[in-house]
Amino acid sequence: MLNRSFILAGVAVIALTLAGLWWLTTRAGTAPPAAQSSPPVDSASAAPGHLRVEARPAAQLGIRLAPAVAASEAPFAIVPALIQPPANARVAVAATFPGVVMRTLVVEGDTVRRGQPLAVISSREVLMMGADLTRANARLGVARSNAARLSQLSREGIIAGARADEASAIAVETSADVSEKARILHMVNGHGASGSYTLTAPIAGRITTARIQTGNSVDGTSAPYVIDAANRYEVLGQLPERLVGLVHPGMLVRIDPDIQGRVTAVGSTIDPATRSASVKAEIAAGPGIVAGRATNLLISGPTPAGAVSVPAAAVATMNGRTVVFVATKGGFAVRDVKSGGANGSQAILLSGVKTGEQVVIAGTSALKALALSR
């Protein structure tokens, strides 16, 4: 009886164990769908060169996009150059009449606008010219009155018409004399009553030379001030012999930090010592643009068809390859690109990306790590 009881107990334990296993298996087979959802990044099932990244994880990775735009200019060459004012942008302000400096209104280094007073000079010639103008005006009044009187007498037949014509000619001549003296005083900003005239800036720019002091004398041949035109500079570079004939006027140039201009002239004579020709470009003023400064001149030329411009941050290096991550449906494609150099903060791509495609400009490190882990 005892052995029979042990046997029955063993069978019951086995039956209960089997029932428990069946129940667990059934529960595992009916797991909630949430446990079977796809992960945000599934690189194993993605096509070669494609990274599958959903929108929310992409935002969490800090990924930002920018469009690729068609590029018309690409870096061509970098040459050493010197910044200088253009030949036609430096103006000497001459003292028209000799005299004594009464006041100076600007100093070397000041920025001036066109027509701004620079100095006041007392001059005997201006005083005499003012007196001559006063006398000429008096003569003009008499001549006009006389011409009007004789003209009336001529019309009445009292005097010959020739006398009236002579008086009219004298009035015209006197009027021309008044106009000439007044024009000269106006040109030099002269004041006949005080016998002084004012030097003014003929152009807007910066005072680069100021050889003038209060109390000193000036003559009519000196140039107390020299002004360099504002916002205009010339860059003189040395173009290697191999590039002569390839660079031409109108090509885009750039100087750091992103100051742009255009080539204005290219020399045709090779310097035997440096084996280079001269190249000139005109640029605008900007930070660090100072006459006499040595710099590097980046010359750009037309790009081949299909070239695009993207932010420089979009370009990455992976396993010795130059790549760009391009946004695609459901993720990003790793594109091999051919770089055409940089144009300021923009990179020029000659192949690999089309105009209008969205490229990754932030978060490239995370995508690069994901691509290398595949």
Identify the notable features of this structure and list them briefly.
single chain, 374 residues, alpha+beta, conserved putative lor/sdh protein from methanococcus maripaludis s2 fold, Elongation Factor Tu (Ef-tu), domain 3, OB fold (Dihydrolipoamide Acetyltransferase, E2P), 3 domains, 6-stranded antiparallel barrel, 5-stranded antiparallel β-sheet, 5 helices, 27% helix
Structure description:
- One of its GO terms (molecular function) is transmembrane transporter activity.
- InterPro entries: BSH_CzcB-like (IPR058647), CzcB_C (IPR058649), MFP_Cation_Efflux (IPR051909), RND_pump_MFP (IPR006143).
- One of its GO terms (biological process) is copper ion export.
- With 374 residues, the chain is α+β, with helices and mostly antiparallel strands.
- It folds into three domains: 91 residues, conserved putative lor/sdh protein from methanococcus maripaludis s2 fold (Beta Barrel); 71 residues, Beta Barrel (Elongation Factor Tu (Ef-tu), domain 3); 141 residues, RNA polymerase II/Efflux pump adaptor protein, barrel-sandwich hybrid domain (OB fold (Dihydrolipoamide Acetyltransferase, E2P)).
- The chain is built from five helices and 25 strands.
- The strands form six sheets. Strands 4-14-17-16-15-18 form a six-stranded antiparallel barrel.
- α3 runs antiparallel to α4.
- The protein starts with a helix and ends with a helix.
